[in-house]
Specification:
The chain is mostly helical. 81% of the residues lie in helices and 0% in strands. The chain is built from two helices and no strands. α1 packs antiparallel against α2.
Amino acid sequence: MKQSRIMSLVEAATNVVVGYGLAIATQIVVFPWFGLQADLPAHLTIGLLFLIVSLLRSYLLRRLFERHRALR
């Protein structure tokens, strides 16, 4: 069954939003190991930037694979 563009976006967004929470928690734990200091707003902003990149990457890869599947 073919996945619609909207469902591709929903899947990618769900994956990225769940990953966002994990990324923030990971940053809070790992940054100090490398001597990096950031307050919560900075962690949230950094995480948001990576969220946007990740969402675009996930969506575009999903569409690429869907196009490849449709050509077969």
